[in-house]
């Protein structure tokens, strides 16, 4: 009987820890699901006066390189339009979205003296399309590039407190800990 009681006391904290870990993971993922990973290109076609706005030109030409759009010049304006591949990518979200951050691994869980719990994790990008891996697109979109480079290695941290019922509550959306630039 003492052996069984000892085994139960050994495994009880482990099951509570696993349940709490699962709750942290679920709350973090819910927060990450609220964040759009998109380029912000919402209207097509795009047109600028030829020879102006180099920044827009560079971003658009990166999308040309990835096969999402084509360009042509008409009446002194450079015009970019969606290709069939670009149209199929764009129509899903009315933007070029490149996936969702997902929790890869919980790296650390620590609680400070005030009762705040810090959960550190790594991520991956679910459903990362081929065009988002294109070198030109990544150079023209530094946020995308940093996220792709950080897959499986960059750490994020989420801050939790505990409500009166003892359940964890996410205080703010996860923040990136490691910077690659």
List the helices and strands and how they pair.
Elements: H1 2-33, E1 46-49, H2 54-65, E2 69-74, E3 77-82, H3 84-91, E4 100-111, E5 117-126, H4 135-140, H5 142-149, E6 156-162, E7 168-176
Antiparallel strand pairs: 1-3, 2-3, 4-5, 5-6, 6-7
Portion of residues in beta strands equals 25-35%
Report helical residue fraction.
25-40%
- Low-pLDDT runs of 5+ residues are 5-12
- Widest sheet, order of strands: 4-5-6-7
How many angstroms does the end-to-end distance come to?
59 Å
* Average of per-residue pLDDT values: 89
Task: Give the topology string: H per helix, E per strand.
Answer: HEHEEHEEHHEE
Characterize the overall form: elongated
Question: Which structural class matches the secondary elements?
Answer: alpha+beta
Main pleated sheet: 4 strands, antiparallel
The number of distinct helices, counting runs of at least 4 residues, comes to 5
Strand tally is: 7
Integer-rounded radius of gyration: 23 Å
Folded structure, characterized:
This protein has five helices and seven strands, in the order αβαββαββααββ. The longest helix is centred in the first third of the chain and has 32 residues, at 2-33. The strands form two sheets. A four-stranded antiparallel sheet has the order 4-5-6-7, with helices on one face. A three-stranded antiparallel sheet has the order 1-3-2. The chain has 181 residues and is α+β, with helices and mostly antiparallel strands.
């Amino acid at each position: 009987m003492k052996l069984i009681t000892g085994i139960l006391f050994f495994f009880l904290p482990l099951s509570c820890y696993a349940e709490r870990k699962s709750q942290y993971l679920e709350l973090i993922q819910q927060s990450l699901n609220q964040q759009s990973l998109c380029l912000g290109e919402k209207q097509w076609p795009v047109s600028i006066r030829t020879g102006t706005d180099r920044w827009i030109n560079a971003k658009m030409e990166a999308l040309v390189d990835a096969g999402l759009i084509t360009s042509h010049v008409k009446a002194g304006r450079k015009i970019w339009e969606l290709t069939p591949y670009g149209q199929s990518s764009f129509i899903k979200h009315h933007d070029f979205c490149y996936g969702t951050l997902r929790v890869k691994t919980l790296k650390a869980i620590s609680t400070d003296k005030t009762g705040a719990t810090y959960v550190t994790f790594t991520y991956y990008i679910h459903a990362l399309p081929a065009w988002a891996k294109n070198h030109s697109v990544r150079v023209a979109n530094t946020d995308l590039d940093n996220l792709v480079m950080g897959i499986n290695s960059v750490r994020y941290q989420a801050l939790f407190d505990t409500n009166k019922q003892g359940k964890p509550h996410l205080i703010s959306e996860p923040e990136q800990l490691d910077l690659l630039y």
